[in-house]
Amino acid sequence: TLYSLDASNPEAPKARTAREDAARLVRARLANPRWIAGQLRHGYRGAQELAQGLDAVFVLAATTDAVTDADFDRLYGAWIADLDTFDALRAANPAATRAILERFDDARARGLWTSRRNAMPADELMPQAAE
């Protein structure tokens, strides 16, 4: 098991498993509607931050068992299935939107994510991302 040490409070450092850290990252930040809205207020750069966040989750999923299908589902639901967020993301940065869609497809293709949703395949959304 992989652990990380949170020393943000030097008086009370906390050891967490990679799974706990991944779940915390997804819930508290990447899929948090307030955090997403805050990033999208930054336009192009904010959309790029979302893409980089998904890249980090993907790398963690590829190298450990810390990321679950539910984590990917939560991100897909917050960014792609929520059409208002998807439209804002696409308007802010079409390249980041394409990168996000490709990363979700790559996660499926590599067996890192088996969606429990009736999610629209990313290749069907790709033309919209290019607009």
Condensed summary:
This protein is mainly alpha-helical.
What is the domain tally? Answer: 1
- End-to-end separation in angstroms reads 44 Å
Shape estimate: globular
User: Which spans of ≥5 residues are poorly predicted at pLDDT below 50?
Assistant: none
Helix segment count?
A: 7
Overall SS class: mainly alpha
What average pLDDT do the residues reach?
Answer: 91
Q: Give a quick account of the main beta sheet: strands, pairing sense, barrel closure.
A: 2 strands, antiparallel
In total, the number of strands is: 2
Rg, rounded, reads 15 Å
Instruction: Estimate what percentage of residues fall within beta strands.
Output: 5-15%
How helix-rich are the residues, as a percent range? 55-70%
Order of helix and strand elements from N to C terminus: EEHHHHHHH
In which order are the strands of the major sheet placed? Answer: 1-2
Describe what this molecule looks like in 3D.
The protein is mainly alpha-helical. It has helices at 18-30, 33-40, 44-63, 69-81, 83-92, 94-109, 122-130, and strands spanning 3-6, 14-17. A two-stranded antiparallel ribbon has the order 1-2. A hairpin with a 7-residue loop joins strand 1 (3-6) and strand 2. The chain starts with a strand and ends with a helix.
Structural topology:
Blueprint: E1 3-6, E2 14-17, H1 18-30, H2 33-40, H3 44-63, H4 69-81, H5 83-92, H6 94-109, H7 122-130
Antiparallel strand pairs: 1-2
